Amino acid sequence: MRTLVWFRRDLRTHDHPALTHACRQGDDGVIGVFLLQPDQWKEHDEAPIKIDLLLRTLSELSRALSEKNIPLRVVTVGRFDGAPAALTKVAEETGCEALVFHAEYPIHERRRDRAVREAFEGAGLTVDVFHDQVLFEPGEVLTKAGDVYGVYTPFRRNVSQRLITEGVPSPLPAPTKQPDTGVSPDEVPEAIAGFKRFPKGSEARWPAGEEAARKRLQAFVDEGLSRYHEERDLPGIESTSKLSPYLALGMISVTQCLHAALQVDPDALDMRHRSGPSVWVSELLWREFYKHLLVGFPRVSRHGSFHRQYDGLPWRDSEADFDAWCEGRTGYPFVDAAMRQLKATGWMHNRMRMVVAMFLSKHLLLDWRKGEQFFMRHLVDGDLAANNGGWQWSASTGADGAPYFRIFNPISQGQRFDPDGAYILRWVPELEGLTGKDLHQPWRVGKEEVERRGYVMPIVDQKAGRERAIAAFKAYREDL
Ligand SMILES: Cc1cc2nc3c(=O)[nH]c(=O)nc-3n(C[C@H](O)[C@H](O)[C@H](O)COP(=O)(O)OP(=O)(O)OC[C@H]3O[C@@H](n4cnc5c(N)ncnc54)[C@H](O)[C@@H]3O)c2cc1C
What is the pLDDT of residue 434? Predict the structure, then answer.
């Protein structure tokens, strides 16, 4: 039997259950396939920098697979609805009798995968689906009442307990060399129309492939993991792993990450224990939590509020304010630094994602969906579950969200997490020479000086914006 492995957001050869299964079940070789779906990616707001990384990763994957005699076919189909025909054609051309792939959880992806399964089974071919993005299959971790968890802490307790009791599965090795199939791999394009190639710097910042991902994990384990619980909120230093793009495209698996953390601290799953590894594991489990939510509450895939009653919140409409936020010109240096970091690098520190998301949804009272979309269009690690979860948390419409009256103050957040202003000055050079309070509140030096430096005065008064948001949420809740 010869099997077709459909690669999607799992662009690696190690710890790849579908690939391992394909290699074990057949004696007539294995074929890989990847579908380029640019029209669908556009509809899903995938960022050019993410597609750039994806294409570079595909080249690496194709090379790694070729070493195992597994050719990677690369086929363009535009949209998801082209997937069943494209894949059955590849199976027919390459003599495959079975298809394997890993589950994806957003609603369109699940619909596509059902159609692919029907097409293959209709043609008399077998289909096997595995779960690799998560530690537990969504639907497997439920409350005592049998519901999907809508609150993180008991979810984490349940998952941790099960992993302690059942054990963490060992990451699977890469496959051995397979029988020759006589099929040649396809060229991987360097660019795709509609997605600009990301400028210089991206390749060095985000090197592609599973080898690069493993090196990054090892560097983090060696240099940052043990201090993670103390430093992870400081955006001015390299305090987190920056593995998110690698997890989003599956160059590394969550199991590999969990193993690395447990090797440093075998008690990292114990919730009473507080160490760098245990706090990092807790972040990996936030990722898991949001993926389970996508399946349990499909409306979040359709831009609905997790708490349905918040769908009608009276957001303001101001293109000028939104543009200022996007461009990093709100007059709040901590917010502006983060937005500029996002545009320049495709990535933003987690603390900063919360700060800017709260600023948009609370101080500016603009719809969080606009911010969610802007993030997706610029993030190298764009991931529907985590992005939606993070936005709804910040906007207080989501699962286990911040209470609507607990609004991060962009000035005191900066003073606390960037006390010497290193982060601000890296991204807002107009403020060079200012220190202390003046750096965090440049309006203190006067409008004329602020404008002379080419910076801007605040687009909203911090206190007034906060009070406006609390009043709007309060009035809306009273009318429910
Ligand atoms: C408004 C908002 C939007 C976000 N959008 C995304 C997104 O599109 N893609 C994305 O991967 N993460 C997103 N996050 C979560 C988090 O900010 C990033 O995962 C993290 O900053 C990535 O940096 P890192 O790899 O250095 O993380 P580390 O701190 O090293 O954490 C390790 C991994 O755990 C996961 N993780 C960490 N924190 C979270 C979290 N709060 N929620 C879910 N997973 C988490 C990520 O996969 C991350 O790579 C968002 C958070 C907010 C508040």
Answer: 98
Report the residue among 133, 206, 287 best suited for mutation to probe ligand 1: largest number of ligand atoms under 8 A from its CB.
287
Q: How remote is the CA of residue 356 from the centroid of ligand 1, in Å?
A: 14
Which two tokens mark 384? 């529907």
| C-beta separation of 458 from 324 below 8 A | no
* 220-256 pLDDT tens trace: 999 999 999 999 999 999 999 999 999 999 999 999 9
Q: Whose CA is nearest to atom 17 of ligand 1?
A: 350
Instruction: Tell which one of 220, 293, 359, 381 to mutate to probe ligand 1, the residue whose CB is within 8 A of the most ligand atoms.
Output: 381
Angle between helix 276-296 and 152-166 (nearest 10) = 110
Residue 239 CA to ligand 1 centre (angstroms): 13
pLDDT exceeds cutoff 90 at 303: no
Alpha helices in 68-176 (DSSP H): 83-94, 107-122, 152-166
d(CA 452, CA 448): 6
Q: Quote the CA–CA distance of 405 and 198 in Å, as a whole number.
A: 39
> Which is it for strands 3-7 and 98-102: parallel, antiparallel or unpaired?
parallel
- The CATH 1.10.579.10 domain(s) of the chain lie at 308-474
pTM for this predicted structure: 0.97
Per-residue model confidence as pLDDT tens digits over 391-415 = 999 999 988 888 999 999 999 999 9
Q: Does domain 3-132 have CATH number 3.40.50.1970?
A: no
Probe target for ligand 1 pocket from 283, 285, 289, 368, with the most ligand atoms within 8 Å of CB: 283
Give tens-digit pLDDT for 177-218: 999 999 999 999 999 999 988 766 678 899 999 999 999 999
Average pLDDT, the chain: 96
pLDDT > 90 fraction of the chain, expressed in percent and rounded: 92
Active-site positions?
A: 283, 286, 315, 350, 368, 391
Q: Ligand 1 centroid to 350 CA: how many Å?
A: 6
Q: How far apart are CA 229 and CA 239, in angstroms?
A: 9
- Lining ligand 1 with CB less than 6 A are 232, 240-244, 247-248, 283-284, 286-287, 290, 349-350, 353-354, 357, 375, 379, 381-383, 386-387, 389-391, 394
**Which residue spans of the chain are classified as CATH 1.25.40.80?**
135-173+209-296
Q: Return the pLDDT at 200.
A: 67
Check if CATH label 1.25.40.80 holds for domain 135-173+209-296. Answer: yes
Given this structure, which CATH class describes domain 308-474?
mainly alpha
For tokens 């009273």, name the residue: 478
